[in-house]
Amino acid sequence: MKKLITTLICLGMTATINAQEKKSKQNTYEQHRSAKTGRYVTKSETKKSPSTTYTTKRKKRE
């Protein structure tokens, strides 16, 4: 009986930890900016001229 309870507690804690990790990974996004003009650009524009753009990671507001 003690093994069953211990196993259930461990499974519950594991599920909680995994859910928290997934949530924190979805909390960021990438933002691309042109070094020449200073304006924000799309990802496709970044791929066309990677030497003149830079990417930063941003946190989403909740």
Keywords:
alpha+beta, 2 helices, single chain, 62 residues
Radius of gyration: 21 Å
Weakly predicted, low-confidence segments: none
Strand content: 25-35%
Strand count, sense and barrel status of the largest sheet are: 3 strands, antiparallel
Helical content band = 40-55%
Give me the strand/helix succession. HEEHE
Distance between the termini: 42 Å
Total E-strand runs? 3
Strand order of the largest sheet: 2-1-3
- SS-derived structural category: alpha+beta
What average pLDDT do the residues reach?
A: 82
Query: Count of helical segments?
Result: 2
Keywords: Signal
Signal peptide: 1-19
Region (Disordered): 21-62
Summarize the topology.
Layout: H1 2-25, E1 28-34, E2 40-41, H2 43-48, E3 53-59
In short:
The chain has helices spanning 2-25, 43-48, and strands at residues 28-34, 40-41, 53-59. The protein has 62 residues and is α+β, with helices and mostly antiparallel strands. The longest helix is centred in the N-terminal third of the chain and has 24 residues, at 2-25.
What does this structure look like?
The protein has 62 residues and is of the alpha+beta class. The protein has one domain (1-55). Helices cover 48% and strands 26% of the residues. The chain contains 2 helices and 3 strands; from the N terminus they run αββαβ. The chain has helices at 2-25, 43-48, and strands at 28-34, 40-41, 53-59. A 3-stranded antiparallel β-sheet has the order 2-1-3. Strand 1 (28-34) and strand 2 form a beta hairpin. It is rod-shaped and about 65 Å long. The mean pLDDT is 82. Keywords: Signal. Residues 21-62 are annotated as: Disordered. Residues 1-19 form the signal peptide.
